[in-house]
Write a structure and sequence with these properties.
Strand content: 35-45%
Helix content: under 10%
Mean pLDDT: 90
Structural class: mainly beta
Low-confidence stretches: none
Radius of gyration: 12 Å
Distance between the termini: 18 Å
Shape: globular
Number of helices: 0
């Protein structure tokens, strides 16, 4: 699938968000490896710590394997 990549901020921060998500992002990615996910300052590992769902337009969401607490900060960064 092919679609244009928009010139938008490729970073989303969720503060105080408890649960596994989904944590949505509005920037486009091509594959699930085009996004990095941090829980506080720890870089998480795809499939071990989170999964990625990509919509038809390239936007999508991240779902954590282990729920975040209300004190956690979840950061999504597009590559």
């Amino acid at each position: 699938m092919s679609y244009p990549i928009s010139n938008v901020t490729r970073r989303v921060v969720y503060s105080g968000s408890a649960g596994v998500g989904p944590y949505s992002f509005s920037f486009e990615i091509l594959t699930n490896t085009d996004i990095a996910v941090y829980k506080n300052t720890t870089l998480l590992t795809l499939t071990t710590n989170y999964t990625v769902t990509i919509n038809a337009n390239g936007t999508g969401s991240v779902t954590l394997v282990v729920a975040a607490t209300g004190a956690d900060q979840i950061t999504l960064v597009g590559n």
